[in-house]
Design brief:
homotetramer; 450 residues; alpha+beta; Butyryl-CoA Dehydrogenase, subunit A, domain 3; Aminopeptidase; 3 domains; five-stranded mixed sheet; three-stranded antiparallel sheet; globular; disordered C terminus
Amino acid sequence: MNSSFFSDMLQTIADRGRALIARDRRSPTEQSSANLVELCDQLLSGRGEASGVALASEILAHYAEATSGARVALFESLASKFGPDHGRLGAAIEAWRASPTDVTAAAVHLAAEPRRQELLRRLNLAPGGTAALVRMREHLIDALERRADLAPVDRDFVHMFSSWFNRGFLVLRRIDWSTPASVLERIIRYEAVHRINGWDDLRRRIDPPDRRCYAFFHPALVDDPLIFVEVALTREIPGAIDPILAAQDEPLQKQQATTAVFYSISNCQRGLAGVSFGNFLIKQVAEEIAREHPKLARFVTLSPVPGFAAWLRRERAVENSPTFKPEERAVLSKLDSPGWWRNDPLPLKEPLLRAATWYFLNAKTRNGAPLDPVARFHLGNGARLEQINWLADTSERGIAQSYGVMVNYLYELDDIEANHEAYAQQRTVVASSAVTRLMRTPAAKLASLF
Amino acid sequence: MNSSFFSDMLQTIADRGRALIARDRRSPTEQSSANLVELCDQLLSGRGEASGVALASEILAHYAEATSGARVALFESLASKFGPDHGRLGAAIEAWRASPTDVTAAAVHLAAEPRRQELLRRLNLAPGGTAALVRMREHLIDALERRADLAPVDRDFVHMFSSWFNRGFLVLRRIDWSTPASVLERIIRYEAVHRINGWDDLRRRIDPPDRRCYAFFHPALVDDPLIFVEVALTREIPGAIDPILAAQDEPLQKQQATTAVFYSISNCQRGLAGVSFGNFLIKQVAEEIAREHPKLARFVTLSPVPGFAAWLRRERAVENSPTFKPEERAVLSKLDSPGWWRNDPLPLKEPLLRAATWYFLNAKTRNGAPLDPVARFHLGNGARLEQINWLADTSERGIAQSYGVMVNYLYELDDIEANHEAYAQQRTVVASSAVTRLMRTPAAKLASLF
Amino acid sequence: MNSSFFSDMLQTIADRGRALIARDRRSPTEQSSANLVELCDQLLSGRGEASGVALASEILAHYAEATSGARVALFESLASKFGPDHGRLGAAIEAWRASPTDVTAAAVHLAAEPRRQELLRRLNLAPGGTAALVRMREHLIDALERRADLAPVDRDFVHMFSSWFNRGFLVLRRIDWSTPASVLERIIRYEAVHRINGWDDLRRRIDPPDRRCYAFFHPALVDDPLIFVEVALTREIPGAIDPILAAQDEPLQKQQATTAVFYSISNCQRGLAGVSFGNFLIKQVAEEIAREHPKLARFVTLSPVPGFAAWLRRERAVENSPTFKPEERAVLSKLDSPGWWRNDPLPLKEPLLRAATWYFLNAKTRNGAPLDPVARFHLGNGARLEQINWLADTSERGIAQSYGVMVNYLYELDDIEANHEAYAQQRTVVASSAVTRLMRTPAAKLASLF
Amino acid sequence: MNSSFFSDMLQTIADRGRALIARDRRSPTEQSSANLVELCDQLLSGRGEASGVALASEILAHYAEATSGARVALFESLASKFGPDHGRLGAAIEAWRASPTDVTAAAVHLAAEPRRQELLRRLNLAPGGTAALVRMREHLIDALERRADLAPVDRDFVHMFSSWFNRGFLVLRRIDWSTPASVLERIIRYEAVHRINGWDDLRRRIDPPDRRCYAFFHPALVDDPLIFVEVALTREIPGAIDPILAAQDEPLQKQQATTAVFYSISNCQRGLAGVSFGNFLIKQVAEEIAREHPKLARFVTLSPVPGFAAWLRRERAVENSPTFKPEERAVLSKLDSPGWWRNDPLPLKEPLLRAATWYFLNAKTRNGAPLDPVARFHLGNGARLEQINWLADTSERGIAQSYGVMVNYLYELDDIEANHEAYAQQRTVVASSAVTRLMRTPAAKLASLF
């Protein structure tokens, strides 16, 4: 009830963060990376926390002003100079070999820790430190593309972030039309799946009674969401995205909805790549919606199939691929003519759906997981492949990456655990009978299935 | 401004926490520790997060119901069965010895990590997990007294807590008469230095215009403070505690105060022992008060001297101790008679003050730090020993632990850094000239100094 | 969701109010009432709002410093000098008589308005003005006791307050253990029916899962409640107050409760006497609880019978009163011996219950309403007299005012409207058949009824 | 600090309001006005509050569904049937004439009150009643245009609103980029002076460090502002509007600003026309900004001159008008050619500025006030006419209504009271010496003055 007491808490964090940013602006002197590395050395060697916080703030302020070159130079130093202390590690290892106990193992553990981990911990003590380190990792990720030698630094960032962005510290908030504009603006910017075209489009997605949007926040980032999901309440499992994104004349009333459709999930912080929140988000949102609408019967996604078109092109180049019957291969060649879906596409339906089914059930990565990344995510969460939809997304991107195919994954609360275990243990792709039947269906009957 | 958005966040966490507690009540079946260990094994071996959260919740719920014996048995298992995997560690070490690079060192680091660290991380994923783990550590600390073999488990708890209770996630809140009663009740309970006698006494400490109280909170514990400090605004550096605790007829008005006195700091969470917040708290509160009262000239403490009486008794037993002149030793023997301070104590003033000065400047631990723990804390923070006060705390405890002596530590913003470094590097005890002069003062003049 | 936006609003009002109080303190010069009246004249004659607010603030500040004598002198002036302008009224009346239209009537209306009404409106423009005027009326009520000539002034206060404390501006808040201490302190102080003995007693009334407390607040008084009600959730309609007030070993769980008992309603602001909130409060709280506990079957009060003992004493003095049978009158004389209820009281049960029934059904005021004021309140709200309880309140006050009798009024949602109308039209006392049967019951059978 | 307690209050009101609106939707049956009048009669005749609230809600729900014709019919009934009771008034007047005391005058006052005032009070008891009545008055204002006979009804609305929207209940809130989108959307919609072109334009006006926006809210309307003002912080008194509305490359930092410019004030609620808030708003915002920026030296407006062009056209038609010298009249004729300001306008500067000065100082309404409505508002508030600006607003509207002229009014805290009184008593137009000098300046020198 008296939430303001706790609200003020977070406000305080926000103010601190802004103070840091303001300070950045005030110190516009260019700093050499040499200087940065030196300061980092000082920070690590200092024994007390008292001066440490000030030093950490100074480092982050300098970093914020640094050029791209100076940043990469800092990352290089982190990789080369702030690894483990091999001398100390050698000694600890000798001690363990002499007497391999938990105590000597603990010493080995400590000695083997890259020194940059402690550096990150101390930088995090600065006001606004967490946000600054997330931004730093964005730069690191960019640098990684050409500098594989920085990968160990990146692993340490992920290790620290996993601890700090522990699920226990995430907070789920509903996003609606009474959310502060500063947050909504970020939602518009971060939407990664189905682009939001300005404030009116945003409002269509969060304000009507049959739309929901939820995001995870973290106290240290305050008004900057980590991940969010958009949901539509519908009567049926939807087979296409356009009706969901379009302006509606008459929204569904609460009691008319039977199905919650998760049609877009966007990660917001590039700097937190590799720290996963989506699994928790979907389940917590499903609980939230179920509490509010006890009569909702189904939770499904309407998901893209990002790897399908590329895979299919490759498959079609393979002679004697078991994916198609010979006659299908010919039909599928129509896919190469631009705008094919506007021009009598029906003959393509069967072969395309059958190919997609094959893609989901049989196309695997080297370690046996499904080739499709979105499939890996939802199946790993315990969802089931429920339905494959033809001409479901005819946007430019939809055609380009999946020949318009979209799928629904079903989150059935009673089965999630079992599905998840089956997938985790044996990479089993759990699919509805409608989908598996597709594989066995004589071409003639296929068309009537969906 | 729109803090409610973020307030609701924390409210959400609070609700989750309560939900967990509520669930505990609902599952009253007694659980054996064997069962607990088995569940922990399952939790560690599980690959996916999906079932992990449910399992973690179940473990914490069972733990909450467990008997004291079952708890200790769990801790034993954590110590003996959830240490590092020595086989894996041996292999990693061989690889490092064959090729001692950062990459093989990283593998060693990973292999040397006690498995219980990952266990704690996974338990923390349960709703209310952090609070439950803090409670678990309280039990562990109790068990530690007779079970030194559990120390490695405790170190891992401290390691995890240091990361989770990172200073960047702490929030400073003022505590006053408009604070929720549920928080105030805890302040009464947690006050460890000068006991609060009920709500009227509490109000005297937080409501008048010349009193302040601030606490650190953490999002995962919501309305349960981590540490708090009580402050009095005064005209002078106070030489005794009673005038500060007594009911005042007329509180000081804002513009009359020149000095902020930190007269009580209490840690609230026994389960977080070893994770230090006090240093940050004092500095942040000083900043807060300075912002509000730009004319305040001084920030001092009025602190107990917990080790003084015990040390003095030991010193008096040492023949030829350099601490006293022979004639002083005789006078000090009066301290052994009960109620000495009520009965012409003046002749004791000089020798006692001189002994106290000696205690602060010369009595050291084995590694060269001051013997007094409170002195170590404030000097380590960069404060200076400013004033030693005679008959400053004549409560039973005050007489018993320090013959009534209290001291003021001064936090002078401009000197904090230098003082801290001097202490951190060479264990220098920075003291005011008034204090150091005490050591050199002819007895006759001493009395007039304070 | 984003309630903080609106929370800050009210915070702003609170700050203003405090600023006013602070200002009062700063102007300690004693002000004569002559001066006050003069300032009021200025305030009324001023044309613009600009200077008006400052003037209103000044008047209220002076008033806050005024002696009791000066206050009464001000009230006298309000009565004698700030009534309607009879000259202007005479002219308006002549105009109406010449042409009795709505337009001339409006002019009469305006001219007949006592000038002090406009004065109160302008005083209310000062920051904190509403609260100051509520305090002013407290003084006026005190003065009224000996000064009936001030009654018209009082009527104008009530007229203004009825508009400002319009039900539409009242806000219902739950009071629980997370409510700010500053509010809880007032709840302790304002409880008028069953005294709250300190904070532990308070907690017993608001914190357990089977207790509720709700209050109405008004934006202009911020953290000062207008009225509050205490509720117990029980399995049965309670027949006595002690079990409800006592510490409970085991509170009822939510799903076990069938009955909500309103056992105490307290008006908080003496200065708002005559502006009624209780009716709205009971109904809104009943709705609130019903929403939270859809299975609750009954809403009843456990109410005092403040006029019963005095009436019974008078009745017993009346010869041939139809209230008793002759043999009962003799039995009832036992009531005159102190401590009668501790000493074989059973023979008194029948006659006392029958007398109470008679009191409720037949004892009337001059205009035909029930003699009992609490009965008038609940019956007027549409409740029904459900049950009369013997030895239900044996506190000193309970015995003194009602020989220990308490009653339950039942709020049956479906009947409220009809009951209310029956009472409003014909002063019908709607009572349960159990109560009405009491009147007709042979003495012998009565005892078994309750 | 614990503002959430009070925040929840307003949230509650908001919920109620939405509940009412929701209910409206659910009862789509068309209601005749006859029915409405009948229900109003019932509401007035009912004695108890119990059924009254339900009845009031029903009336407002029916009203919300009513056609425009039915609404006007209701207003007619309010005018004709719900005026004062002339019979009762006649009796009261006779009593007063027999004995003209305050008591009989009070009876006259009561009897002369139009019955619709009590009706409005009772309607206001419905949840969401205040907002519904504000909407009802919007309809009434529309109807008034052709139905002067409804004016008395309108006066009663204003009378009630003046009491309910008492300044003491208004809350000032800063509007910025963290304000809920639902509020910001209304700011865009309500801006009446310088149109806001979408969300990006809005952000330019509220987010930069040298821009401010504040609004008054009322608890009963929750997230719907009553009036708001836009402010720019600048170095100089601005002489034109475009630089303020344009996107800025580099906003002013806090310490650089010397002047706060109120460049737009918009009333939001058409239904509250006649209840004035602007005076309070400007002064409270000035205080707020002064608290935040103690070094700000000046508070000025940049205001339109809506009546100037029309007046000047009339003046130019008057032969021998003292407003111009003969040669000026010829020059001013250039104003009639479209786009005159783009085509060597300089010769117009002198005569136009002199004419504007004359307009402000000498052009009066019948009762002696300045002809310009904006001038009346600011001069009435105690501001001073500080500067007249040439080609300050070349928007279509700016040219059309004032030939591009804008003025600055200066709010000098020390002079406000005196200016206000001078204006209130003698309609004195207080103007800076720069302005008054304009009147006396030889044409040749005028150009260099501004």
